[in-house]
Each structure stands twice: as structure tokens, then as C-alpha cells.
Amino acid sequence: MKKVIIIIYGMLLSAFIGIIASTFLVIETWTSDLVWQQSRAIQIGAVVLGGVGLYWLVRRWSLMPQSAEKALANLKQHRFGDYRLVFVNLLITLIILTCGAGVGPEAALLSAVITLSSWQADKIRYLYFNYSAFQRLSWLTKFQRLAAFSRGLQTYDGHRAIKTPRFLRQKRLLYVMFGLNGLVAFAILMRHTDQPAFITKLGNSTWHANDWQVVLPLIMVAVIYGNLWRLGGNWFQRLIARYSIPLSVKILCGLIGILVISRFFPELLFSGQHEIHLLVGTWQQATPLFLSMMAVVKLLFLNWCLQTHWRGGDIFPVLFASLTQGLAISLLLPNYDHIVVMAVVATAMAGSLLDQPLIAGMMVALFCPLNVSPIVIVTVLVLMGIKRGIRQVKPLWQRLTGTQTDD
Questions:
Q1: Nearest-angstrom CA–CA distance, 339 and 32
Q2: Sorting pLDDT into bands at 50, 70 and 90, what band is 139?
């Protein structure tokens, strides 16, 4: 009976986490539409008000918004502190996204899911180790203890943890079960709230064997271009860090950047996730120069937001810029399948910018027809080979030159 109750409780908690994630996206979509479908004066006022709110919140919680990497580090060290801060993190991100900053929601969502997964583990751990005492409580007290967000928690203790192989196998199975349950709850709520489609297919491909001859040159060009952008972003980050710029000035600069983009390039607001349709619509008739300029502005806007404390995820903005650049190059190569050219350029460029070839390939493959997957897979493998080669050569180069290079 104890195991059954714990499993049911874990399923309820994982569904709760999925509902929080989907509710955040629903609210973000609603608030963004509410602001950006108004007159220009109201838009400016809302962004200014959002900047004031962001400044106040970040002054109070200077480590927010929290990145997924920081949440993972906390998870490995079993130190999250006050779990209620996850809602502060989501609130700050909601303000940033609603105001049109060129960043994505994925960093805050992943951070929230990681943090709440640790909270779920603490709740289940409390019930497991205190089950006998829990059974003696009244029904009302039991409900209050299980439903309370900040009570009924027990942090990980390596000395008390059960580490038998059988128990660890059961534990991993429960992790998978709870994760899938949370995804189902997330998907159901997203579907029943008529949210914009996550995926916009780029079209159909009828590529032939001769398209393979352009794959490697495109990878090389896109890798060089992507790494130049990444080095430029690192340089800009160091430049900002060199000066003690007050938080208020940073947020004001980010605010001005958002207003400038909203005036001259409104298509480049937000993460770009829901603007992929432009690549299969009106931008199909655009010139390569225009598309390349849009990709450049998108990446500049992303870096500007990240360095002025309008922070968020970079996967979707980088993906949008990379696909846009891929479309530009495909227009210059009319003799080759344009979906293949877009996929290769986007995968190589995004993989270099994010320094995550596998993630870039998975994301690009979602937007491409299935028959392009082999080319995306080959591109990812080439990128991983290049990455491994650079890691092996880099220490030797540093020893020979006595210098340090940026990652």
C-alpha cells in the first residue's frame, strides 16, 4: 500500500509540474498578445513599465532569472534553498518575454522543471521515510502536509539514502514514469488552450544524390560563420563585464533596444519560435541580402538582450537566425534542393553558435521533412567530429604559442 500511495502522489506532483509549465506559456502568449496588439503608445508604456518591474525584481533577487545550467548545478549538489523562488524566476521571465525581448522561454522553463523535480523528490522522500508517522495523522493534516508547497519536504541525505541495485532500478523507472506523466499533462493543457503550433514545417524536399556534393562545403562555411559570431558574442560579454555598469543603465539599454527593434524590425521581436512561418511565407520572395541582414539583426538583438539583463533562452533565437541564413544561401544555390541547403546551414550554424551540435540537429530536424533526416544526421556527425578535433588540437596550440583562446 505504501508503494501505491507514493506512486499516486508522485504522479500528481509530476502532473502539477507539467501544468505549471504549460500555464506559464499560456499566460506568456496571452500577455504578449495583449501588449503588442495595442497602439504604439500603449506598447511603449507597457515596455517601460516592464523595465521598471524587471529592475525592481532583479534588485531584490540579483541571481534571477536563473539559467538551466545553474539549476542543474544546484540539482547535482542538492541545494536549491527556497523552492518558492521558482515562481519569482518565472515572473521575471514572463516580464522579459512579454516586453518582446529577443530571447526564448526554454531556459526559464527548463530551470523551473529541474527545480520543481527536486522539490517533487523532496516531497516523495518525506512521505517515504515518514510514512508510519504520517499514517497516524488526521485526514485533514495529511492533506495539508501533502498539499503544502513549502512543508513536508526532506532533502537528500547520502547517509540515509537506499543504494541497493534493485531499489535504484525502481527509482529510475519511477523517474521515467513521472517525467512522461508530466509531459502528458503539459501536452493536454497546451492542446486544450489553442496555443500556437510549436512546429512549422519548412516544406517538402525531393533531394537527389547530387545534393550531397554541396553538404560539406556548406558545413564548413556555416561552421566558420557561426564560430565567428560566437567569438564576437564572447568578446561583447567580456567588454560589458569590464565596466561596472549599473543595473538600471543595463536594463534601460535593453529597453531602448527592444523599442528600436519593435519600430524597425517588429518581426524580430520575441524568440522567433512563432515567426518560422515567415520562412515559408513572405520571406520566400525576399532577397538573400535582406534575409542575411535579418539573421544578423536577430543575433545582435539576442546578444544585446542577454548582456543587458533581459535574459532568457538562446536556442529558438539562434535557430530562427540560422534558418533565415540558410534560406538566404539556398536562394543563391537554385540548382540544389533548398530544404537541404537550409537544413545543413541551419544545423551547422546553430550547432556552432550553441556549441551543441546534437541539440541543433534535433531542433532543425523537427522543422524539416523526414526524408532530410539522413542529411541532418550526417551534418551533426561532422560537427561532432570537428568539435572533438578542435578540443584535441587546442591544448597543443596553447602550449606552442603560450596563449589562451576563447571557447
A1: 31
A2: confident
Give the pLDDT confidence of 40-97 residue by residue, as tens digits: 999 999 999 999 999 999 998 877 787 777 777 766 665 666 788 889 999 999 999 9
CB 311 within 8 A of CB 96: yes
Question: Under the phi-then-psi rule, with left for phi > 0, alpha for psi from -120 to 50, and beta for the rest, what region is 350?
Answer: alpha
- Residue at which a domain ends, from 191, 226, 251: 191
- 201 is a domain residue: no
Written in H, E and C, the secondary structure of 134-196 is HHCCCHHHHHHHHHCCCCCCCCCCCCCCCCCHHHHHHHHHHHHHHHHHHHHHHHHHHHCCCCC
User: Count of domains in the chain?
Assistant: 2
Flag whether 196 is in a domain: no
Residues of the domain holding 134: 2-191
At 272-307, the pLDDT tens digits run 888 888 888 889 889 999 999 999 999 999 999 999
